[in-house]
Write a structure and sequence with these properties.
This protein is an alpha/beta fold. It has one domain: 3-Layer(aba) Sandwich (Rossmann fold). Helices cover 40% and strands 17% of the residues. Strands 2-1-3-4-5 form a five-stranded parallel sheet, sandwiched between helices. Helix 2 packs across helix 3. It starts with a strand and ends with a helix.
Length: 204
């Protein structure tokens, strides 16, 4: 049976636009994939330490040489990689911070991009055969043709880094204009409705 991994990288909880979209995506995906299961990964409920020396020793040395400190440091990375490799489709919902990704998402990426686990020494991706849908909620509008389009560094980076580990079937939904919610000129429900068709289409 197919499995969807739903990753959320927004700190806003119930107020999050990107979380609303990943919830909608999961609902539609489940309708379209009878018997499919959804695995949820909330990055704000996951301990994601930044890469340090014990982590590096765990990632780049044989398991039999690991110290107890390295074993502990690399444990969450191993769990996240196993989780990623076991699914068929990934939906990633994230805000855009300063034209790029939030630190918690970068920390997650550093844990899953692993030599010998998700890529080889010859730079071959080992996570092939999966679909990835990225939903980016942003205060500004960065869609093709928009005045600020060139400032969007998040889309290209995420597509590049997931492509590096073998995930090349990638679709991106740019849900821009969320600043209107904070400014009180538009409700979250209205904005979500605007992008609902794109999200529903991506969940097929």
């Amino acid at each position: 049976m197919p499995t969807l991994l739903k990753i959320d990288a927004s700190p806003r909880g119930d107020y999050s636009v990107s979380r609303s979209f990943t919830a909608l995506f999961s609902e539609e995906w489940t309708k379209n994939h009878s018997g499919g299961t959804v695995v949820e990964r909330d990055l704000f409920k996951t301990e994601l330490p930044f890469v340090d020396v014990p982590w590096l020793m765990g990632a780049y040395t044989p398991a039999e040489q690991h110290s107890e400190e390295s074993k502990k440091a690399i444990a969450i990375s191993n769990a996240l990689v196993d989780e990623l490799l076991a699914v068929d489709h990934i939906v990633l919902g994230t805000p855009m911070y300063n034209f790029s990704l939030p630190a918690v998402l970068k920390a997650y990426i550093d844990h899953i991009v692993r030599l010998g686990r998700t890529f080889t020494s010859s730079y071959e991706g080992l996570a092939k055969g999966k679909k990835l849908t990225i939903i980016i909620a942003s205060g500004g509008v960065y869609t093709p043709g928009a005045q600020a389009e060139s400032y969007n560094a998040e889309s290209s980076y995420l597509k590049q880094i997931f492509g590096f580990i073998g995930i090349t079937d990638v679709s991106i939904v740019l849900a821009g204009g969320t600043s209107a919610i904070d400014q009180g000129t538009k409700t979250k429900d209205v904005l979500v409705a605007e992008f609902k068709p794109a999200v529903v289409e991506a969940a097929k």
